[in-house]
Automatic annotation (TrEMBL):
This is FAD-dependent oxidoreductase. Pfam families: FAD_binding_3. PANTHER family: MONOOXYGENASE, OXIDOREDUCTASE-RELATED. One of its GO terms (molecular function) is FAD binding. Residues 3-161 form the FAD-binding domain. Gene3D superfamilies: D-Amino Acid Oxidase, subunit A, domain 2, FAD/NAD(P)-binding domain. It comes from Micromonospora globispora.
Length: 402
């Protein structure tokens, strides 16, 4: 049980490859994109995930790429400030919690796995289990056989579909869509998150420290039927229709959307599965238990899941069933408590009425002046902190050569 094919080169895949390599496995990472996906959106690393980053020796690299965000400002349709708050509180972060761009984290992990084989511009087309491995047919490259195959390929996982069935059986939509794309830096303010709430819709723009461009963020109720997740033109048309008539900078942002090189739109959905492995095929990160962007914990679950899976497989020796079983036993309670954050968070991210917007604005204005302010802040961050630390990481086995 030494050769492992990992599908996906974002966060979970390279993190898993790093740990497997340390434990003497020979991982190969296959990625559909022609190169490492740069850019993306802000991601948080908290609690147990920070411990994983420390055990990888990557804390300094992560800190060097911190977003440096300082403020969050709520604005009305004319751009006038309604309320302001510290960026750490706005993001539910405290203490050593880290925030960086997803693309920066992917680059850190890729650089740390330079001794791992990467197959870009390819994907798994078919998998055939055998008595002691998995025969894999690729879309472009020649077929190969691996001892194990792990899907780390996100919400729309190819490995999950091939091994477990259609994604409709496992995706649990939370009733909203999210869109993120890059715009010119002039749309944002340095190290500031600008948010404009409208009834049932939220739009934001942020620019991180040293960034030449800014990121636009849109949240809105899901349509009854939407375009396929690879139909980019259809997705852009959907977003334009959903935010028609919204003020502030929205018309200009939608104009810029048509030229955005990194446009992303998808449903805010969770992946719920009874088991994350079948035979010699397993899942990690969003592919197996994506908590949705509304949880704020997807990246942390990917990092912790990669560590626990690799550690469990290493401890199991040549018994993949035992390794997968130990991985699930350790991870499932952690996954469940973090998935529960999503619906709670989503209620505060998209407000349904003008009255709710007025109430939220009033509370944000009053918070700096209220007695017991620190207690109120702890109540905001406590559910996230508890979820982020709701696992005891297993000890890492001693490194061994491949």
């Amino acid at each position: 049980m030494r050769t492992v094919l990992i599908s996906g080169a974002s966060v979970a895949g390279p993190a898993l490859a790093w740990w497997l390599r340390r434990y003497g496995f020979r991982p190969t990472v296959v990625e559909r994109a022609p190169a490492l996906r740069e850019g993306g959106y802000k991601v948080d690393i908290r609690g147990a995930a920070l411990d994983v980053i420390d055990r990888m020796g990557l804390r300094d690299e992560v800190r060097r790429r911190d977003t440096g965000m300082r403020l969050a400002r709520l604005v009305n349709s004319s751009g006038a400030q309604l309320a302001t708050m510290d960026a750490q509180l706005f993001g539910g972060r405290e203490g050593d919690d880290a925030e960086l761009m997803r693309g920066d984290l992917a680059r850190i992990l890729a650089d740390a796995t330079r001794d791992v084989e990467y197959l870009f511009d390819d994907s798994i087309a078919a998998m055939t289990p055998t008595a002691d491995g998995v025969e894999v047919r690729f879309e472009r490259g020649p077929g190969r056989t691996f001892d194990l195959v792990i899907g780390a390929d996100g919400l729309h996982s190819t490995v999950r579909r091939l091994a477990f069935g259609p994604e409709s059986a496992y995706l649990r939509p939370l009733g909203h869509h999210i869109s993120i794309f890059s715009v010119r830096g002039e749309f944002g303010e340095d190290r500031t998150e600008l948010m404009h709430p409208a009834p049932g819709r939220t739009v934001g723009v942020y620019r991180t420290a040293g960034a030449a461009d800014a990121k636009a963020l849109f949240l809105f109720p899901s349509p009854e039927r939407g375009p396929d997740h690879r139909d980019v033109a259809g997705q852009k048309a959907l977003l334009a229709a959903a935010f028609g008539g919204v003020g502030w900078r929205v018309p200009r942002l939608l104009d810029a959307m048509w030229e955005a090189p990194d446009f992303y739109l998808d449903s805010i959905s969770q992946v719920r599965m009874d088991h994350w492995s079948t035979g010699r095929i397993g899942l990690v990160g969003d592919a197996g238990y994506g908590p949705s962007p509304a949880s704020g914990q997807g990246t942390s679950l990917s990092l912790v899941g990669a560590y626990v899976l690799a550690t469990s497989l290493a401890a199991a020796g040549g018994d993949p069933a035992a390794g997968f079983a130990d991985y699930e036993r350790r991870m499932r309670p952690f996954v469940e408590v973090n998935q529960r954050l999503a619906e709670r968070n989503l209620k505060g991210m998209v407000l349904r009425s003008a009255a709710q917007i007025r109430f939220q604005t009033l509370m944000l204005r009053m918070m700096p002046h209220l007695p017991g302010r620190e207690t109120m802040i702890r109540r905001v961050t406590e559910p996230i902190r508890k979820a982020a630390t709701a696992i005891t990481l297993p000890d890492a086995p001693a490194p061994r050569p491949a």
